[in-house]
Amino acid sequence: MGSQLKENIKWYRQMPKEEKWLYKYSNLWMTPLKYTVVSLLLFGLTVWLDLWQNYGSKMPLVQPDYQLTTTILSSLTTGLLSLTTFTFYGVLTALTTFSSMFSPRILRNFMVTKKTQRTLGIFIGSFLYVLLCLLFLTEETSYFFIPVTATFLAVFALGSFVVFVNHIINWLQITNMTIDMKKESMRIIGKSAVSELDVNQLEAGAKIEDQLPKKKGMPILLKESGYLQSINFRELFEQSQKDGILVRLEHKVDNFVFAYSPVLTYWKTEDSTEELDEEKYVNMFHIGKKQRELHDIEYSLNKFVEIAIRALGNDDPRTASGTLYQLGDLLINISQNECFTSYLVDDEQKLRVMIKSLNFDDYLHISFASIRQYAGQNIVVTIELLAVMQAIAKGVKERDHDSVWNFVEYIVKGFDYQYLHRLDRRRFYEILQEIASVTGYTSQYSKLADKSLAHLTDDDEIEDAKKYIGTLE
Questions:
Q1: I need a labelling partner for 431 at 20 to 30 A (CA). Which of 80, 185, 219, 437 fits?
Q2: What's the chain's average pLDDT?
Q3: Is the same domain home to 349 and 421?
Q4: From the CB of residue 342, how many other CB atoms can be counted at a distance below 10 Å?
């Protein structure tokens, strides 16, 4: 128990500042605790002024007597408790309904917003203040600071309530919600734990084949199961240098790891030490009960995917289309800011760590494969998906053009052209031709367009399709 506590404290201290903030404020108790401390200090100050120093009797303008002060405090206690209860009961009811329509993952996004936590803290702190003051009232004292402060807090809580209701209304609009989610995802891109290291990073295509191991390595196992919440990459890299070994990680952050399965594999080199402390490497991995979003853009993308899929299930194609464009914007930023690092080398260009990383094909599949499947024969959504791919093709780096075209082929080949009518056909082929032109696959476009004719049985539709294909070629 003591060793586990020490490991948890060490793990917390090693967290980056942003990760510490998320760890503390992902729970609802942190901000209300701060406001509770402030209310206790305010309570102590006003009680000291009124009860011990009797400054209330020296205020000429307002001097509420004992009966009036008791009435004020008791009324405010009941009112603040009712306001807090009904507000958050209504919020949770609305969010539960909203999450069932789109994604249960969005509950966390709402609860960690500063306005939500601040409002809860103001309600709890104000209620606690008036309740404690009610307990310390005596008939022999003149009051000024206690009732005036309590009245001020009630007005402040009421104003916070109005601001909070406005915040709920704005946040629960699907457009604002997805924009807020996208901003949060943007902060994740390019800020992975690996990118924060001051080490040399090589892309997956780098020519280091001569350093890749040819024989079977030695696995290091974890004795517990759960989500891999974080890896101490800095310590891992430095320790691998000291021990003179090559390390390959078997999991990415936020992957589920089974007990007694390899978490990493290592190979000894000519610089290797005799003894290797495997327990030291095991302690560099932190296993938890749930996924965390801080460095996992895949988790963020899946939230958008869930919203789009549930929107399709609720016959809401406009919400689905809007979510597609937000995903497309994120993918462009991923292409521009990520280097898809797979290898870490030391100053002597010796390969030290091989990590699990996603390439752009993986990000496209994560973002759009499920949507493409659930869209089925929905022509509007499918053409919007191709339009998003067109925008992505124009915005990504040239290295990712192959991935874009391959995924476009994946979309098109799974589409039933029998559902593509004349009004949609021209836009369909225009988008395909534009993507092919941008990515450099014009010859493949011609083959793909010709194959699409084989799915048509009506002679008029075949001639109509040939007209559009021929015009674009």
A1: 185
A2: 81
A3: no
A4: 21
